Amino acid sequence: MKRRSIHCCGLLCAVFACLLSAGPAAAEDKSIYSPIIFVDKEKGFIVVSSSGAVFGVEVSEAAKPHLDKLPASGMIDVVVELRPGNAPLLKTWKLAAGESSCKIFDGKTCR
């Protein structure tokens, strides 16, 4: 009987520890290398593809004025913040192929 209660107590502690460590999901950054499929300057989205999926990346207010400098069909390397339940949020970009006066966006300024 005593041995059984020790096992139950150990199991309960393990489950409790797992629940505490799970907690709310933190935002995660991901790098995506993709062709620029579409740029929606008015809504502030860049449409890219990754692993066979096509999706929109929301851009920050700081990036919106520079969207018109991105060439259609150019290759871009973006770093996004994955947000559960929302579109990924653009953090930075580096234009890998295509002509632009804004080849690198660091989250604040364009070079």
Task: Quickly list its features.
3-stranded antiparallel sheet; alpha+beta; 111 residues; OB fold (Dihydrolipoamide Acetyltransferase, E2P)
Any chance you could write out the topology, listing elements then pairs?
Blueprint: H1 2-22, E1 28-35, E2 38-40, E3 45-50, E4 53-58, E5 75-82, E6 89-97, E7 104-105
Antiparallel strand pairs: 1-5, 2-3, 3-4, 5-6, 6-7
Walk me through this protein's architecture.
The chain has 111 residues and is of the alpha+beta class. The chain is built from one helix and seven strands, in the order αβββββββ. The protein has a four-stranded antiparallel sheet, with no helix packed on it. A three-stranded antiparallel sheet has the order 2-3-4, with no helix packed on it. The relative contact order is 0.17.
Give a summary of the structure in a few sentences:
19% of the residues lie in helices and 38% in strands.
CATH architecture assignment: Beta Barrel
The CATH superfamily label reads: Nucleic acid-binding proteins
Give the CATH level 1 class. Answer: Mainly Beta
**DSSP summary: helix tally:** 1
Structural class: alpha+beta
The residue fraction in helices comes out at 10-25%
What do we call the CATH topology? OB fold (Dihydrolipoamide Acetyltransferase, E2P)
Strand order of the largest sheet: 1-5-6-7
| Overall 3D form | globular
In whole angstroms, how far apart are the ends? 71 Å
For the biggest sheet, the summary is: 4 strands, antiparallel
Number of strands: 7
Low-confidence stretches: 4-23
Using only CA atoms, what is the Rg?
21 Å
Proportion of beta-strand residues: 35-45%
